[in-house]
Each structure stands twice: as structure tokens, then as C-alpha cells.
């Protein structure tokens, strides 16, 4: 798809790889643009039932490109910020700005996203990982909410996601200090769904399982979970019923039942 991201699609799974290997997949302007365009394209493709997001080479993503920090040291806001001259406060992508959408876009995809993480995930790279529904992390991966090292706050949608994953006092400690922690610790803290010595292979295994389920139900489940934080209990209970009414008796739901009863692989359609 670009010289920053490669996408391969097979059997309902989109295999998305960050491929700026010479810079440990660091986030420069071209990488930001590739992240945005990739999520936009995937969102339009009904044949995609699950996404695996990983990094080629030695790392998942080393964070913001060092060149941006050099520009910050010179006081150059335009060249150092993904928001450019207009700054970061204007909302350019729905509720997000451009940099935030590089993370939030994965959360907005109508299908599950699984991040396979190895090497390092620092700063912005850590936040890109958080955009996924699930994160399979090598136990020796080095991770950090590293923005404080550069005198900054995490601002790529990280704060909107981290609080739902990690205990408040631990999150504050990691954010205030920028301490580097391991993949094994990330699981203890709630950032890693599971650890694996082969995170990419494990992520693909999970994705293949998901791609074999009723795609309408999978999409409904993701929308349900994405909506929950802003809902009252009354609204959440109604939401379950509304989605279930749409699914019961639908072509793919009937196929799920028949395949189970006949003990055969289901053949779903992507409508």
C-alpha cells in the first residue's frame, strides 16, 4: 500500500505490517499518512473480517521519529507536530486530530484488530498498539509511555484508552516517570492481552478463528463494545436487544446454526 505499510489480505484476514525497518518503524509524516490511509481503506472493504497489525524488523514501533524532536528543540512547531501549523486542538478527523486518528482509526474499524508486538513499543508506538482490540506481546518487549522524556504528554488518543486498561495509580507512575517495562509486566498492568514467544503467529491464529465466525455478529460485537463507555445501563441493555433483533434469522446467523448442527465449516457471505 505504501513504503511505510504493507497490507496482505487472505481468507478474511488483513495482515498489516509497518515496514520502515531502517528506523524501527518510527513515526514520521509519511508513516502517519500511511496509518490513516490504511484504516480508511480497510474500513471500506467488507471482505476483511479481522486485522493483524505488526511491525517488520527489530521492533513494533519506536515512537516519534527523532527528527521531530530536533525540530522541537529549535522551537519549530510546524515541522515537529503531526498537526502542522494549525496545532493539535482542531478536530480534523471526527472527534480526533490527525495524530490521534493514527491510533483511534484502528479502534473505529468495524472489525477486530489484533496487535502483534515485539522489540520495542515506545511513546507513539505504544499508543498505536493501544488502538487494537487485543495485543499479543512478546514477554521481552520493551514498552514505555515515553512522552515525559521529551517534556510532553501522551496525545495520540492514549489517555482515552489507557484508563480503561490499567489501574489508575500504576498508569500515573508509568506516565510520570516514562519507565521502560517488559511485555510480561504489560500483561500484569492490563496493556497486553496475552504474552507469547511468537506474537505474530499467535495473533494470526486468533484472527483466523475470528474470521471463521459470523462476520455480522463480529461487527455487531465490536460496535457494542465501542459504544459501551458512553452508555447508561439502560442504553446498554437496549443496545444488546437491538443488535440481536437484527441478527436473528439473518442469512449468516442461519448459516452459523446450520454449520454447527451439521458439524461442518460455515460459509458466510460478506454483504
Question: Overall mean pLDDT score?
Answer: 94
Give me the secondary-structure category. alpha/beta
Order of helices and strands: EEHEHHHEEHEEHHEHEHHHH
Query: What is the share of helical residues?
Result: 40-55%
Integer-rounded radius of gyration: 19 Å
- How much strand? 5-15%
User: Biggest sheet: strands side by side, in what order?
Assistant: 1-2-3-4-6-9
Number of DSSP-assigned strands: 9
Sheet bearing the most strands, described?
6 strands, mixed
Sum up the overall morphology in one term. Answer: globular
Relevant CATH superfamily of the largest domain: 2-enoyl-CoA Hydratase, Chain A, domain 1
CATH topology of the largest domain, by name, is 2-enoyl-CoA Hydratase, Chain A, domain 1
CATH classification, class level of the largest domain: Alpha Beta
Architecture of the largest domain, according to CATH?
Alpha-Beta Complex
Please describe what this structure looks like:
The protein is of the alpha/beta class and 271 residues long. The chain has two domains: 206 residues, 2-enoyl-CoA Hydratase, Chain A, domain 1; 49 residues, Lyase 2-enoyl-coa Hydratase, Chain  A, domain 2. The chain is 44% helix and 14% strand. The strands form two sheets. The chain has a six-stranded mixed β-sheet, sandwiched between helices. A three-stranded mixed β-sheet has the order 5-7-8. α10 runs antiparallel to α11. The longest helix is centred in the N-terminal third of the chain and has 16 residues.
Amino acid at each position: 500500500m505504501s513504503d511505510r505499510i504493507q497490507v496482505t489480505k487472505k481468507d478474511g484476514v488483513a495482515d498489516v505490517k509497518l515496514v520502515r525497518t531502517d528506523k524501527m518503524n518510527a513515526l514520521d509524516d509519511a508513516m502517519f499518512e500511511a496509518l490513516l490511509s490504511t484504516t480508511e481503506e480497510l474500513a471500506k472493504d467488507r471482505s476483511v473480517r479481522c486485522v493483524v497489525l505488526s511491525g517488520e524488523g527489530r521492533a513494533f514501533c519506536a515512537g516519534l521519529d527523532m527528527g521531530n524532536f530536533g525540530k522541537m528543540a529549535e522551537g519549530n512547531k510546524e515541522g515537529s507536530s503531526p498537526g502542522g501549523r494549525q496545532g493539535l486542538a482542531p478536530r480534523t478527523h471526527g472527534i480526533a486530530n490527525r495524530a490521534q486518528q493514527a491510533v483511534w482509526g484502528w479502534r473505529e474499524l468495524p472489525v477486530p484488530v489484533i496487535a502483534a508486538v515485539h522489540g520495542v513499543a515506545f511513546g507513539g508506538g505504544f499508543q498505536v498498539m493501544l488502538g487494537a482490540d487485543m495485543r499479543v506481546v512478546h514477554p521481552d518487549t520493551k514498552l514505555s509511555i515515553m512522552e515525559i522524556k521529551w517534556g510532553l504528554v501522551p496525545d495520540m488518543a492514549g489517555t482515552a484508552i489507557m484508563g480503561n486498561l490499567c489501574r489508575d495509580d500504576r498508569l500515573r507512575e508509568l506516565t510520570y516517570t516514562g519507565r521502560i517495562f517488559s511485555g510480561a509486566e504489560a500483561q500484569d498492568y492490563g496493556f497486553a492481552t496475552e504474552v507469547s514467544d511468537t506474537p505474530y503467529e499467535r495473533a494470526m491464529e486468533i484472527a483466523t478463528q475470528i474470521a471463521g465466525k459470523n462476520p455480522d455478529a463480529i461487527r455487531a460485537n465490536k460496535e457494542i463494545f465501542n459504544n459501551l463507555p458512553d452508555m447508561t445501563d439502560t442504553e446498554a441493555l437496549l443496545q444488546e436487544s437491538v443488535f440481536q433483533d437484527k441478527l436473528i434469522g439473518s442469512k449468516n446467523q442461519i448459516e452459523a446454526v446450520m454449520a454447527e448442527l451439521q458439524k461442518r465449516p460455515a460459509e458466510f457471505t460478506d454483504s
